[in-house]
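pasting Alpha-ketoglutarate-dependent xanthine dioxygenase xanA for the record, 370 residues
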Amino acid sequence: MAVLPAAVRPLQPPPGSKIDFGAEIDGVDLENLTDEQFTGIRNALYHYHVVVFKNQQKLSPKAQYELTKRFDPASDNYGHGKTLDAKRSILHPDLKTVPHQPQVQVIGNGFVPSYEGLENVQLRHPHHRTFHRDHIPDEKDYDFTRFYRWHIDAALYDLYPPQVTTLMAVEVPKGRRQTLLYDDGSGETLDVPLGTTAFVSGERMFELLSPEDQEFVRTSKIEYAPHPYIWMSSARSLPTGLGMYSENRELPESELPPIDPTKIMIFPMAWKNPVTGKLALQIHPSAVRRIHCADGTVIDDLERVRDIVYKLQRPAISPPYVYTHDWQDGDMVLFNNRGVLHSVVGAFKPDEVRLFRQCNLAASEPPVGP
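structre below
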């Protein structure tokens, strides 16, 4: 790192972990970043993918937005645009907008009397029972949990996926941990902090593939469903949160908002890191619709498409490769939305208040493939 070498500290993996990404950065004032400091942060982000800034309790929504925008100065609109206006969207209940900084959303759990111009806000943490086909019995809900949905922050229709996302922890529930269950027959489990955000590296996801699969990923593209979060609203997730069951529950095009074919997104399976040039396997598994192959053929059987994507992605979400951030009040986490997948995790009691700010901006350019 040419800039801020002393301030960037790679995360130390816990025993048994094989994570090779993540860093903390100390000693920068995010409210008043210099160009040199931003260059150092950008360099660190594209080497480490997840960057943690501690003790940012005083960081304003405006500064959070400005840091996010600095990665893509031509961007300005919230990453999902107005998709959230659609009542059927699976994203609709989960976000509130900061009135004086509309690109910044408030997420979390519990009742918040007043925050940044919002009054009497009831936040709802996404729970896997609302999205997964099968769920953990209610009586075990506070001891055990799941990955809710592995994803990239992206509208995947009309708008390009954001370059980065920033997550700011304003208030974090203290105390208990949970056992995360994969519930897919593997027997895999993971001990996680309450309400963690889980991350996996798309570069590691690519590296774990066989040479044949790497070649397939390098030369294939994913077509996403139009209005994907409405399209999938009746479908149900696998227990790993990594994609959907194929039960013909997706909404037909006749029941979706009007579709402009020019706004349907087709992206490479592998996205190139703008600093290192490394390839990351970056697919939003819940929203996939078709695979475009190198020879010009198109795989459009949805069950087969999902099965192919699942087999490519599943090795990299095994416990050794997952970073589960242990949130503390004042943590500001910046992540490379084009180099990691992430998932909400956890089940909260109604009185456990979790208050976060999220910002990402629809990118001005599409992801670059190999």
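Confidence is low (pLDDT under 50) at residues 1-5.
The chain has six helices and 21 strands.
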